[in-house]
Design brief:
The structure is a single chain. This protein has 27 helices and 26 strands. With 809 residues, the protein is an alpha+beta fold. Among the domains are: 140 residues, Alpha-Beta Complex (Aspartate Aminotransferase, domain 1), CATH 3.90.1150.10; 236 residues, Type I PLP-dependent aspartate aminotransferase-like (Major domain) (Aspartate Aminotransferase, domain 2); 175 residues, Gcn5-related N-acetyltransferase (GNAT) (Aminopeptidase, 3-Layer(aba) Sandwich), CATH 3.40.630. Helix 4 packs across helix 9. The longest helix has 21 residues. InterPro entries: Acyl_CoA_acyltransferase, Aminotransferase_I/II_large, AON_synthase_class-II, BioF2-like_GNAT_dom, PyrdxlP-dep_Trfase, PyrdxlP-dep_Trfase_major, PyrdxlP-dep_Trfase_small. Its EC number is 2.3.1.-.
Length: 809
């Protein structure tokens, strides 16, 4: 099985955050010697603060501050013991008050993240199952994923999709005791809420359904005694719900609270809840501040505070309603999200608002899809009416300027968020001065010599190769074998090409580069649902080709504008064909392109290395071993050369029908086995048309009869090779009979015979393609790391595959 490097998610996030940091909108430091909550000092400038999660402003309440200071003097800065041994004297009072607040048993935790890590593994038993809402907070997903080692099934549904939830419940109900659906009460990015009433109806319909609700963003500003949005809908907590609130954020102190009316479950979590047992307890200052806040929550004052905040929220909503700003979710929570689409637009907009004296947060991947970047505005009691009006005025003024600066439009943003389109926006496209884009849907409409000069001499995408692919991948039965081709050439005023590329629109498996454990599970599902978790992809190059699919003249002064024009055209095509993914691929490390692609809404990921012999400088195969390293030369003499005499090597240029059937069977063996690069099987029509094309040949290994008693002239390996303009020999696909592979070193012999054939034909380069880089390196290939840049309409399939990874169910 081919082994490939899978994308490191943390590396991807690191690159996204690093770019945002360099743009001055992330990882900032507050300045100054004091902080009031209304303003925050950044880069030597006082800004009105619209980024807090302390919505009621209790963190600045003198009663909380004085209680915290008094506790430090009495008990010290910390109480350095686990609560399993003994609790700080203040804990009992806090627990009593929080129990009174909820009128239900509670558990105090250090914070919500550690709380989830303690509660979820304790609450969810072996034999239970978990269903995650796609947008449930990362801390919940992370804690749930720890149960994979216990073989607890973990599923995921699209955000608030109750039909999908019910389907999952039906699927799991016969196999699992309890089914836990995990949600946020109020979601932290868009400010939307869980459909609590409808979820309770499902609980009544399915007794196995239990709810795990993380309502830390709904706390204090909503509900009776400030117990949160979810509790305000529930009124009281049934035994099949475990609720998390917070003592930080709006509550004004630190820590979190789990509320659980199921006596055995409550006892189990509190007695031994992982990090709840082994972690150091809350600091005395935090406990005392939480007690002071609890006293406010238990008094009528909490409703006065809630109403004051609601007045500000209502004002902000009223002002926004008179604008065309793309508010992603209309609600009455303190969280608002204004979409900007591309990250570069978000950077520009945030910096513009900071220059006007307003601090807001940037919403960025992985919290949202990259192309759903935006600003998160939070309203608190600290904000006064004049600065709320000032913020709206500043957004109205600067939003169109940020769009213009970054070459986008209001309707592009609205399409990214599926918001209503503005009628008044002109549909005429503004031409970029000095640049002309040429777009075609068949290679036949492009001059052959010009295309080959720009894109030829590599892979199977010279002019003839692309015409061949167009004919193969049309009028076929399977959706996956019908592609649409899009060719783009961008020229300057002198008609000089700056950029050239081609894209295909094709159905692809979402797990093509996912870990084998994920693809194995998905292929089991696809036995009944062949197109499960598949998507139409608008991808640079094609699923068939590998190589440098983008020609760009970086010496040209307008090359960056040309790249942006290409991306604009691709965005237009994406909307026309409704593809779920756009993929730019096969790039070597290039910081300028990487930054440009990211700012335009793409995230970088590693793909399998490219393997190429860049210079066949030897004249005969007798000279070939001297081109290898000492170690590879030993490999050649031990694992390749002694096996050569076992095979008859045939170069089939026009195989008959029986041979084509044999070759296709060998290819299917490899395709089914190579789940690490999980692709749809290619159609048999491809092999038939290869046999009729002068640029293709079938390099076939027949095991000699003395090594295969009773059988003669049976092919055990085949390499499908394309001859590109006399420059590059391209073994595009391989087929093998695995009954013979190990004993006779079939794969290694195919690699060697490919090199031998390319030498005989006078080629100077071999493009061995992706995967199996270790084996290809041993025969002299240069390993070239490659990257792709992807843009997804949403992160659902990525999230779903993440929860499937390494699960043992």
């Amino acid at each position: 099985m081919a082994k490939i490097k899978h994308n490191n998610f943390l590396n991807t996030v690191n690159e996204v955050f690093t770019d945002a940091k360099e743009q001055g909108v992330l990882h900032l430091y507050a300045e100054g010697t004091n902080f009031t909550g209304r303003k925050i000092k950044v880069k030597q400038k006082d800004l009105f603060h619209f980024g807090t999660t302390g919505y009621l402003g209790l963190e600045q309440d003198m009663r909380l501050k004085e209680a915290a200071v008094d506790a430090i003097y009495k008990y010290g800065t910390q109480f350095p013991l686990s609560k399993s041994y003994i609790s700080n004297p203040l804990y009992r009072e806090l627990e009593e008050k929080m129990t009174q607040l909820y009128n239900a048993p509670i558990i105090i935790t250090k914070n919500s993240t550690l709380g989830h890590l303690g509660a979820i593994p304790s609450a969810v038993d072996d034999g239970d199952a978990i269903i995650l809402d796609h947008q449930v907070h990362w801390s919940v997903q992370s804690a749930a994923n720890t149960l994979k080692t216990r073989s607890v099934p973990i599923e995921m549904i699209r955000h608030n999709n109750l039909d999908m939830l019910e389907d999952k419940i039906k699927k799991l109900s016969s196999k699992c005791k309890k089914i836990w659906y995990m949600v946020d009460g109020v979601y932290s990015m868009y400010g939307d809420v869980a459909p609590i009433d409808d979820l309770m109806k499902l609980c009544n319909k399915y007794s196995q359904l239990h709810l795990y609700i993380d309502d830390v963003h709904g706390m204090s500003w909503a509900g009776k005694r400030g117990t949160g949005y979810a509790f305000s809908k529930l009124k009281e907590l049934p035994e099949n719900i475990l609720l998390f609130g917070t003592l930080s954020k709006t509550f004004g102190a630190s820590g979190a609270v789990a509320v659980c009316t199921h006596k055995k479950r409550h006892h189990k979590i509190k007695t031994f809840g992982g990090p709840l047992t082994f972690s150091v307890q809350l600091e005395p200052a935090s406990i005392a501040a939480a007690i002071a806040s609890a006293n406010i929550h238990l008094s009528p004052e909490i409703y006065m505070l809630q109403n004051e905040l609601l007045e500000r929220i209502t004002l902000f909503n009223t002002l926004l309603a008179d604008t065309d700003l793309p508010l992603v979710e209309e609600n009455n929570s303190p969280v608002f999200y204004i979409g900007t689409g591309m990250p570069v637009t978000g950077y520009n907009f945030v910096n513009r608002l900071m220059s006007e004296g307003f601090f807001v947060n940037l919403g960025i991947f992985p919290a949202v899809p990259v192309k759903n970047t935006g600003i998160r505005v939070t309203i608190s009691r600290h904000n006064q009416a004049e600065e709320i009006k000032g913020l709206v005025d500043a957004m109205v003024y600067h939003y169109p300027k940020a769009l213009e600066d970054t070459h986008t439009t209001p309707n592009k943003v609205r399409m990214a968020f599926k918001l209503p389109i503005l009628n008044e926006e002109s549909k005429k496209k503004k031409a970029v001065e000095g640049i002309r884009i040429e777009y075609k849907q068949t290679i036949q409409d492009i001059d052959k010599d010009k295309w080959n000069k720009l894109m030829g001499k590599q892979g199977v995408f010279d002019w003839d190769g692309l015409l061949f692919l167009e004919k193969v991948f049309t009028k076929n039965e399977g959706y996956e074998n019908n592609w649409k081709f899009h060719y783009i050439i961008i020229k300057d005023e002198a008609n000089t090409p700056i950029l050239a590329t081609f894209f295909t629109y094709a159905l692809s498996k979402d797990d093509m580069l996912a870990p084998v454990s994920v693809s194995t599970k998905l292929e089991d599902i696809r036995k009944d649902e062949p197109y499960y978790l598949t998507s139409y992809v608008l991808g640079m190059g094609s699923p068939f080709t590998e190589g440098k699919h983008l020609y760009v003249d970086k010496s040209h002064p307008q090359w960056k504008l040309a790249v942006k024009q290409m991306l604009d055209k691709i965005e237009e095509l994406q909307h026309q064909c409704n593809s779920n993914w756009v993929v730019l691929r096969d790039f070597e490390d290039d910081e300028e392109l990487s930054q440009l692609f990211h700012q335009q809404g793409f995230i970088k990921m590693m793909i399998p290395d490219s393997c190429q012999i860049l210079d066949l400088y030897w004249n005969t195969m007798d000279e070939y071993p001297e081109s290898l390293s000492t170690r590879s030369r030993k490999h050649f003499k031990k694992d390749i050369q002694p096996y050569e005499d076992r095979f008859e090597v045939v170069y089939n240029k026009e195989p008959d029908e029986n041979q084509i059937n044999q070759f296709y069977e060998l290819y299917n063996n490899v395709n089914k086995n190579n789940i690490a690069l999980n692709m749809f099987a290619l159609p048999k029509k491809l092999f038939v048309m290869m046999s009729q094309h002068p640029n293709w040949e079938f390099l076939t290994l027949y095991l000699k009869e003395e090594f295969n008693i009773g059988k003669s002239h049976i092919p055990v390996g085949v390499m499908l090779c394309y001859k590109n303009l006399g420059a590059t020999y391209t073994p595009a696909f391989i087929g093998m009979d695995y009954n013979y592979t190990k004993e006779h070193q079939v794969y290694r012999q195919l690699l060697y015979q490919t090199i031998k054939r390319a030498t005989e034909l006078g080629f100077k380069k071999i493009d061995f393609g992706m995967t199996a880089s270790f084996e290809k390196k041993k025969v002299g290939a240069t390993i070239i790391p490659k990257n792709a840049y992807i843009q997804a309409k949403d992160n659902f399939s990525l999230g779903l595959m993440s929860v499937m990874e390494t699960t043992n169910n």
